[in-house]
Write a structure and sequence with these properties.
It is a single chain. A hairpin with an 8-residue loop joins strand 4 (94-97) and strand 5 (106-113). The chain has helices at residues 3-9, 25-39, 54-67, 80-90, 125-138, 156-165, 186-194, 226-235, 262-276, 291-298, 310-320, 343-355, 361-366, 384-395, 438-453; strands spanning 15-18, 43-48, 71-77, 94-97, 106-113, 117-118, 150-152, 175-180, 199-204, 239-243, 250-253, 259-260, 281-285, 302-306, 324-326, 332-334, 372-373, 377-380, 402-404, 409-412, 416-422, 428-435. With 455 residues, it is α/β, with parallel strands linked by helices. It has four domains: 3-154, 3-Layer(aba) Sandwich (Alpha-D-Glucose-1,6-Bisphosphate, Chain A, domain 3); 158-257, Alpha-D-Glucose-1,6-Bisphosphate, subunit A, domain 3 (Alpha-D-Glucose-1,6-Bisphosphate, Chain A, domain 3), CATH 3.40.120.10; 262-366, Alpha-D-Glucose-1,6-Bisphosphate, Chain A, domain 3, CATH 3.40.120; 372-453, Alpha-D-phosphohexomutase, C-terminal domain (TATA-Binding Protein, 2-Layer Sandwich). It contains 15 helices and 22 strands. Helix 2 packs across helix 3 (54-67) and helix 9 runs parallel beside helix 10 (291-298). Strands 1, 2, 3, 4, 5, 6 and 7 form a seven-stranded mixed sheet that branches. Strands 17, 18, 19, 20, 21 and 22 form a six-stranded antiparallel sheet that branches. InterPro entries: A-D-PHexomutase_a/b/a-I, A-D-PHexomutase_a/b/a-I/II/III, A-D-PHexomutase_a/b/a-II, A-D-PHexomutase_a/b/a-III, A-D-PHexomutase_C, A-D-PHexomutase_C_sf, Alpha-D-phosphohexomutase_SF. Residues 9-134, 157-257, 265-371 form the Alpha-D-phosphohexomutase alpha/beta/alpha domain. It holds the Pfam family PGM_PMM_III. This is Phosphomannomutase/phosphoglucomutase.
């Protein structure tokens, strides 16, 4: 495996690629050895999702780690946030084998240090890649004088108990909840987490199947929640929940079958976390709704704005001691969960908020969904820099406009804002627009799209 091939699978925050074309069990074994060396771990925890290649890859990683002298705890099938729980609860570095919502032929590794602290390019991943490149060219390193032990442990019950200890569900009225697991790991975790709750659970696609026979396990794509929306209406359910493939993200649908913006969920959960931790700091990325910092301030908290991406959220959470963080992508981060993201905990907050009062979910979240938003609109643009410069030039003279470049280009006025940022991996520009009314939203959205799509 040459270095050029590794550059295609080692991303900013994880390893991800096609199996076996881009990586295989032999390479996974080297990653296990390199992970132990870079983290100086004498023990690690390893979990995997339901993809056909996951058991073999995670087993190979464990062999590589054990050969370097580290004891390995295999927790088997789990969600990504269950692996983070194990890392935090056991105080061990961890590795999760998943490619989230990518198609079946993909797999990957999300790695963390003890306490679920992320491993990215600047926090160890570049060093791990360099070792794997070296060993793939020169041969695997000599094994340690004494190999580590490999043992198995089921953490599902402990994971569920920890989450349930973080949310007061004692006043919850009975609810009917449709859950679309997308044949991903939500089908493994939801039954155990929900079993003690006053919930009538309507399961959809709970069969673990890494070929994703029903739809892609990415609930942010509207096409992938159509089945859930129809089922919520057909069942007269109180709400619907959709999890992605590794069940670390959760998307919410109200009783009408309408999708709820992750920004509104961020605001709702922020208000609840601030009730538990008065005066706390809440992190939000720069394309979440204006509603989020407004609600945080109204509830006595301090909002902190960051770039898009979980590494930036987690860094700011650690730096500021924030109690909670949310992103437009339906990632939700909790100080009480080692600053890691867990869609399941956010879902429990929604259940608690809905179940503790009589109104339907659509009415409950209206107070947190105050503006018109475009969602993310992608445009293929070869020269992203030139197109962005043209947009900036067109809006620089707008009265009362402020411009910042924290992450791409953000233009803000009293009545609207937009952010335009390039994809890190594709020739795309991503546009998000928000305004005080739908007519203004449409006007600004169309003006920006006209500029970038003629470039």
């Amino acid at each position: 495996m040459a270095a050029a091939d590794l550059s295609r699978i080692v991303k900013a925050y994880d390893v991800r690629g096609v199996v076996p074309d881009q990586w295989d069990e032999a390479l996974a074994e080297l990653f296990g050895a390199a992970f132990v060396q870079v983290t100086s771990a004498d023990a690690i925890v390893v979990g995997h999702d339901m993809r056909p290649s996951s058991p073999g890859l995670s087993g190979a990683f464990a062999r590589g780690a054990a050969a370097r002298g580290a004891d390995v705890t295999l927790i088997g099938l789990c969600s990504t946030d269950q692996l983070y729980f194990a890392s935090g609860h056991l105080g061990l570095p961890g590795a999760m084998f998943t490619a989230s919502h990518n198609p079946a032929q993909y797999n990957g590794i999300k790695m963390c240090r003890a306490g679920a602290a992320p491993v990215g390019q600047d926090t160890g991943l570049a060093d791990i890649r360099a070792l794997v490149e070296q060993w793939s060219d020169e041969g695997a390193p000599a094994p340690a004088a004494e190999s580590g032990k490999v043992t198995e442990r089921d953490t599902l019950e402990e994971y569920a108990a920890h989450l349930l200890s973080l949310v007061d569900l004692s006043a919850m009225r009975p609810l009917k909840v449709v859950v679309d697991a997308g044949n991903g790991m939500g089908g493994h975790t939801v039954p155990t987490v929900f079993e003690s709750l006053p919930v009538t659970l309507v399961p959809m696609y709970f069969e673990l199947d890494g070929t994703f026979p029903n739809h892609e396990a990415n609930p942010l794509d509207p096409a992938n929640i159509v089945d859930l929306q129809e089922r919520v209406r057909a069942e007269n359910a109180d709400l619907g929940l959709a999890f992605d493939g590794d069940a670390d993200r959760c998307f919410v649908v109200d009783e009408r079958g309408e999708g709820i913006s992750p920004s509104a969920i961020t605001a709702l959960v922020a208000a609840r976390e601030l009730a538990k931790h008065p005066g706390g700091t809440v992190i939000h990325n720069l394309i979440t709704s204006w509603s989020v910092p407004e609600v945080v301030r109204e509830n006595g908290g301090t909002p902190v704005r960051t770039r898009v991406g979980h590494s930036f959220i987690k860094q700011e959470m650690a730096r500021t001691g924030a109690i909670f963080g949310g992103e437009h992508s339906a990632h939700y981060y909790f100080r009480d969960f080692w600053n890691a993201d867990t869609g399941m905990l956010a879902a429990l907050h929604v259940l608690a908020a809905l179940g503790s009062q009589p109104a339907p979910l659509s009415e409950l979240v209206a107070q947190y969904d105050r503006y018109s938003g475009s969602g993310e609109i992608n445009s293929t643009v070869e020269d992203q820099t030139a197109a962005t410069a043209e947009v900036r030039a067109a809006f620089e003279s707008v009265p009362d406009a402020t411009i910042d470049t924290l992450d791409g280009l953000t233009v803000t006025t009293p009545d609207w804002w937009f952010n335009l940022r390039p994809s890190n991996t594709e020739p795309l520009l991503r546009l998000n627009v928000e305004a005080k009314d739908s007519a203004t939203l449409a006007k600004i959205r169309d003006e920006v799209l006209t500029l970038i799509r003629r470039s």
